[in-house]
Amino acid sequence: MNQNRMILGLAVAMVLALLLSMFVYRQFKQATSTVKPVGTHIVVAAVPLKLGTRVDASNLRLIPWPSDQPVVGMFTRMEDCANRALITAVAANEPILESKLAARESGAGLPATIPAGMRALSVAVNEVVAVAGFVTPGTMVDVLVTGRVNGSRGGDENITRTILENVPVLAAGQKIEQDREGKPQTVPVITLLVSPDDAAKLTMASTQGKIQLALRNTIDSKKVEPPSVLQAALFSGGPAPQPKRTGPAKPGIAPPPPPAPYVIEVITGSKRESKTFSNQ
């Protein structure tokens, strides 16, 4: 009887030991599976870097990175991204990615930040044109021009129209980065990012007329296409004068009534008579 009890107790002890070992094994496996393997490195900025900076070993460093969590466009060796310019500012320890670098042959500074097919064009400004100095790098503007055109009634008339909308500002003076505190900058020139066609428009406007920049909210990218404003319409308070119709009237559309004639009373001695003259 005692021998049977001993065998039973031994069997229970073995079962408990087996269950305990299985529990410990599962816990150990679960704990080791949560540890992320570190099998690679990623290139990051060693210090804060400004827009247009050429990156190299002096301003880059490597940090450990989980090999199972790759970042699109990341670099694992500094020599793979060296001697290329940044097209955006980066903070210290921020990863250097392919999307943040200009092409290797683009050089450094402002030229490296100009996308292919676009142009950087500078225009002379003063404090008023540059919206009290708040037109700074990274802001968006509309370009208005005021000039003279041949009026519908003969002679020249002043007109103001918007020729460009939602244009990025690349630089203010020689600065290509916006002041972090948003302080205004009084500069003699503003550099805008435009297409070749818009560059021609802007050059004509700045040389043959007077330009004015209108500052936009950077998230307001909708094109409005506002109508032109004639000086005569602005100061007379009425609609802009319409050109006279020179061709025959279209079928179904009545021609406008002729203007009323001039009537002048002529007095000759004691004789009075009225004479009518055409107003056309």
Short structural summary:
It is built from 3 helices and 12 strands, in the order H-E-E-E-E-E-E-E-E-H-E-E-H-E-E. By secondary structure, the chain is an alpha+beta fold. The relative contact order is 0.11.
Q: Which whole number gives the mean pLDDT? A: 81
Q: Give the helix level as a range of percent.
A: 10-25%
Quickly count the helices: 3
Question: How many strand elements?
Answer: 12
Q: Return residue spans where pLDDT drops below 50 for at least 5 consecutive residues.
A: none
Strand content: 25-35%
Please compute the radius of gyration using only Cα atoms.
Answer: 38 Å
Question: What does this protein look like?
Answer:
There is one protein chain. This protein has 280 residues and is α+β, with helices and mostly antiparallel strands. Among the domains are: 38-113, Alpha-Beta Complex (Type Iii Antifreeze Protein Isoform Hplc 12), CATH 3.90.1210.10; 119-234, no CATH class. It is built from three helices and twelve strands, in the order αββββββββαββαββ. It has helices spanning 2-33, 196-208, 231-236, and strands spanning 38-45, 54-55, 60-66, 84-85, 119-124, 140-150, 156-172, 189-194, 210-216, 229-230, 262-268, 271-277. Strands 5, 6, 7, 8, 9 and 10 form a six-stranded antiparallel beta sheet that branches. Strands 1-3 form a two-stranded antiparallel ribbon. The protein has a two-stranded antiparallel sheet with strand order 2-4. Strand 11 and strand 12 (271-277) form a beta hairpin.
